[in-house]
């Protein structure tokens, strides 16, 4: 299975992650999304049943087989969600007023609200902020007991049943994987998910505990949406297999003015250690109901490319939006335009990285510099585990990176990686493998006679962790 033929239309290095939902729920629609440019699909376990998710997974795999290209699947766990209980219709909180929160099931009103989460009451302290309804309402804790607390309304407004609660100032003593998540996780792993997204990560221990439960059956992507995670971000990045910058909840709990700088810093930190990074949430949100994005949204998507993100994500745009295919096509055009700009103005692109004193990183960096200096048409990497591809991708090469590996599941995992276009072959002899790769590239009309290519491999050939060779070849 290879995706070489897809490159004949255009080379786009930044990947597209799209969410499936009611607006993208049949073979024709999902196939159209792949044709438009989706590289990996997200199954959002905050919504839908296992039966619905299984049907979508099966359709993706059928399309993958029919098109002979690897398609990744990411299962996004819901994580711990905090919401108020039932509230009387017409309830509104008035600025300056005091309101009591308790753990009862009584219907709430403007004087008291039910909050059935005991762990919140254990962690709160006077002065802590309580945000509701995506940050539209803000309250400050004034006093508390074991089962109640009183808060002053700083920013008021209407409140209705089951509205979400965010607590930006405290770190809750709770498991990152809830009982629901554990059931969803087992379902996702049993049905071939390539990536597991862990929601509301607060500490590196959350990542390590989840990886134990995953037990190598998939890769783990840590979602950064809690300010507490930023306190341990280097350890979290090192422990996870990839990072998602989930700007929705992050933008609620963190001052919105800080989010762009946090995004840039996280992308750089991920690139530095060779971990794929996804920018997510509200990228083309207006396209939920409009066939065109705002100019600000287009600039936002391009900004993720200029910063060096591996992938960008569409959420409601493709899950429930009116124009899912157009949204993907639009995102792909923006990505290509931004990448084309970087080729002309490289200083507008991702910042250069320092190289660790490692043969593997040094070989990857040298291969990219060599390929771009001699104007090679492609870089070819032979990688058993995919790690060689990750090291090359961290340098953000401006030419296609073709990765030959022996396992389909590695191809699927690399569907999130910047620039990686994969093929699956099991040749154990280097010269035979290279000849086959050249033939595939020529057949796809990606290279032509006399074109230069740069080949990265390891000797002994086919042995994981042996990358130590750069070779210049001509077609």
Question: What distinguishing features does this structure have?
Answer:
475 residues, TIM Barrel, M1 Pyruvate Kinase, Domain 3, Pyruvate Kinase, Chain: A, domain 1, 16 helices
A few lines on this structure:
Helix 1 runs parallel beside helix 12 and helix 5 packs parallel to helix 7.
Structure description:
The two termini are 23 Å apart. The strands form four sheets. Strands 1-2-3-12-13-14-15-16 form an eight-stranded parallel barrel, surrounded by six helices. It has a six-stranded mixed beta sheet with strand order 6-5-9-8-7-11, covered by helices on one side. The longest helix has 21 residues, at 324-344. It is α/β, with parallel strands linked by helices and 475 residues long. The protein has three domains: 4-79 and 176-341, Alpha-Beta Barrel (TIM Barrel), CATH 3.20.20.60; 92-166, Beta Barrel (M1 Pyruvate Kinase, Domain 3), CATH 2.40.33; 359-474, Pyruvate Kinase, Chain: A, domain 1. The protein is elongated. Strand 2, helix 2 (50-67) and strand 3 (72-76) form a beta-alpha-beta unit. 43% of the residues are buried. The chain is built from 16 helices and 21 strands.
Strand content: 15-25%
Shape: elongated
Number of domains: 3
Sheet with the most strands?
Answer: 8 strands, parallel, barrel
Assembly category: single chain
Would you tell me which CATH topology of the largest domain applies? TIM Barrel
Which bin fits the share of residues in helices?
Answer: 25-40%
Low-confidence blocks of residues: none
CATH architecture of the largest domain: Alpha-Beta Barrel
Return the structural class. alpha/beta
Q: Strands across the major sheet, in which order? A: 1-2-3-12-13-14-15-16
**So how many helices?**
16
């Amino acid at each position: 299975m290879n995706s070489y033929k897809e490159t004949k239309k255009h080379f786009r290095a930044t990947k597209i992650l799209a969410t499936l939902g009611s607006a993208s729920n049949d073979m024709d629609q999902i196939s159209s999304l792949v044709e438009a440019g989706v590289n990996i699909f997200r199954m959002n376990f905050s919504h839908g049943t296992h039966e619905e998710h299984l049907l979508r997974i099966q359709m993706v795999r059928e399309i993958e087989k029919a098109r002979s290209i690897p398609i990744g699947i990411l299962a996004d766990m819901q994580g711990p969600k905090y919401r108020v209980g039932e509230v009387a219709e017409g309830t509104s909180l008035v600025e300056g007023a005091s309101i009591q929160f308790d753990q009862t099931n009584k219907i709430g009103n403007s004087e008291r609200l039910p909050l059935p989460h005991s762990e919140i009451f254990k962690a709160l302290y006077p002065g802590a902020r309580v945000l509701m309804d995506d940050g539209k309402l803000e309250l400050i804790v004034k006093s508390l007991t074991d089962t109640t607390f009183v808060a002053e309304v700083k920013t008021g407004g209407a409140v209705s049943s089951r509205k979400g609660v965010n607590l930006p100032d405290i770190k809750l003593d709770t498991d990152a994987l809830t009982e629901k998540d554990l059931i969803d996780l087992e379902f996702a792993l049993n049905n071939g998910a390539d990536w597991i997204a862990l929601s509301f990560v607060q500490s590196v221990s959350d990542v390590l505990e989840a990886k134990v439960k995953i037990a190598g059956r998939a890769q783990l992507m840590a979602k950064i949406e809690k300010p507490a995670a930023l306190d341990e971000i280097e350890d979290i990045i090192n422990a996870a297999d990839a990072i998602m910058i989930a700007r929705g909840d992050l933008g609620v709990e963190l001052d919105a003015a800080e989010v762009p700088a946090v995004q840039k810093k996280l992308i750089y930190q991920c690139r530095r250690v060779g971990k794929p990074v996804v920018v997510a949430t509200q990228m083309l949100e207006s396209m939920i109901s409009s066939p065109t994005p705002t100019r600000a949204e287009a600039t936002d998507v391009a900004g993720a490319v200029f910063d060096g993100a591996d992938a960008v994500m569409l959420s409601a745009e493709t899950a429930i939006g009116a124009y899912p295919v157009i949204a993907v096509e639009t995102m792909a055009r923006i990505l290509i335009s931004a990448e084309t700009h970087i080729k002309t103005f490289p200083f507008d692109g991702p910042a250069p990285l320092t190289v660790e004193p490692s043969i593997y990183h040094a070989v990857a960096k040298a291969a990219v510099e060599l390929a771009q200096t001699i104007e090679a048409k492609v870089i070819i990497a032979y990688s058993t585990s995919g790690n060689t591809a990750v090291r090359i991708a961290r340098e953000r090469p401006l030419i296609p990176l073709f990765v030959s590996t022996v396992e389909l599941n590695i191809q699927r995992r690399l569907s999130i990686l910047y620039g990686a276009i994969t093929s699956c072959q099991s040749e154990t002899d280097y010269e035979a493998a290279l000849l086959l790769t050249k033939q595939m590239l020529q057949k796809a009309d990606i290279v032509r006679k006399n074109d230069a290519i740069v080949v990265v491999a390891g000797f002994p050939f086919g042995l994981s962790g042996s990358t130590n060779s750069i070779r210049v070849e001509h077609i």
